[in-house]
Amino acid sequence: MDGNAPFSDAIRLAPIPEDFRPPRLEVYKGVIDPREHVQGFEAAVRYRQPDKATRCHLLANTLKGAAFSWFIKLPRGHISSYEHLKWELIACFIGRTRMVVSDMVLANIKQGERESLRNYTNRFFAAAAEAEDVELAVAMHDFRRGLNVGDLSKSLQLAKSPSYPELVARASQFMLLEDVESFPTSAPGVKQVVACITDFDVRRVLLDSGSAVDILFESSFLQMGLKEANLLCVGTTLLGFYSERVQPLGFITLPVSFGDENGHAMSMVNFAVIRAKSGYNAILGRTTLNSFGMVIFTPHLCAKFPTSSGGVTIRGDTRQATHCFQIAAQLVVDQMDPRETQSIIPQEGVISVALGGENSSKIINISSYLNDKQQTEVIALLSEYIDVFAWSPEDVTCMDRAVCEHHLNVSQAVSPIVQKKRVMAGERQDAIREEINKLLGAGYIREV
Question: Which Gene3D superfamilies does the annotation name (predicted)?
């Protein structure tokens, strides 16, 4: 189907300038007020200054969904100008115009008896965003009046005249507080994450899909009445505990089961028993989680897995999880490597001596801890071999060019390009000129 068929021949056959680059335009699906879309479209294309025919094609390209279906159903050659297309579009979708919200609508918005503060706040401010010519003070008054009696309403009553940002900030604080208080510590009728290891109900078990091994900590191992003689010693080192290498005490295979009233599942797990501090009693890695077919929902602190009698859901305890996290965080801080601060020892004192006379530029430093006789002997020795030292670039002769040359990986067939002159401060120019003169005098560089 030809998407340009509704245009007249004058528009359809009009060429689009080759150098014309269309701006980024919002699409229109016939959902919102068409006048808003047309106003936004005209503002976007105004600085490109397209002709009328190009505007027709651009506006037609923004139509999607119901709006595009309406456009392609127009009779062939029906649209004769941009103004014609614009008003046809507005006339067809004018029914999608949003209802203007007045201050009376805001005054009638009330918080439901069991409605959360977050839901009421979202409803009110969404309606306030649609309102026209409503003073901010009136909207704030309507918001406070629509609140149920609670902590936020009492807090706003104590505040004499909070500003709009203060009102929003205070409402956000009470919404977060309400979210925390409403989050259930445990779902009624559903067991906590309790793993039955051998014959013991073990709590504080971490389900870690990022762990390659299953861990049983030594403290839990001993509380189960197990002995180190039951361990299978294998020369394996684990990496990942506080960035350290941990040598397991050994490995032991134990039955682990999960279940609730909907079902039950058991699997034999090969635990690595380690001696380390932790907020958890055991860690079940991805191998065991996969054997159960377990899917973890971290935001909800729960996990699900299938059984022959139905799906089983196990949930964690938010307080226990927070407590374990605090212990783990404290362990990381405690096990940080405290570097011993080494005091800075000052270097020994030195004396500057000019070789070849007081006005000589050949300056050396000798230790101030030498006695007078030693200083005299050192100065005499250095003066005797003064020609051994390189006091300037000219003194460094017979140097291999490979040491001081830099090879540029450029094609010699390409003509050189004059770089833009860099303007530098006077001090920098003097320093550059001095270094260049040194290299020229030493013969390291030459003008080309």
Answer: Acid Proteases (2.40.70.10), HIV Type 1 Reverse Transcriptase, subunit A, domain 1 (3.10.10.10)
Collapsing DSSP states into helix, strand and coil, what is residue 389?
A: coil
At 430, the pLDDT band (50, 70, 90 cuts) reads confident
**pLDDT tens digits, 258-286:** 887 778 888 888 888 888 877 788 889 88
Q: Where are the beta strands (DSSP E) in 229-294?
A: 238-241, 244-246, 250-260, 263-274, 282-284
**Residue with structure tokens 């105004």?**
46
The number of CA neighbours under 13 Å toward the Cβ of 241 is 17
Q: How far apart are CA 393 and CA 99, in angstroms?
A: 84
Q: Say if CB 289 and CB 281 are below 8 A apart.
A: no
152 Cβ neighbours under 8 A, 6+ residues apart: 117, 170, 171, 174
The per-residue pLDDT for 191 is 37
CA distance 57 to 50: 10
**What are the beta bridge partners of residue 364?**
353
CA-based torsion, 140, 142, 143, 145: positive or negative: positive
User: 359-368 pLDDT, tens per residue?
Assistant: 677 888 888 7
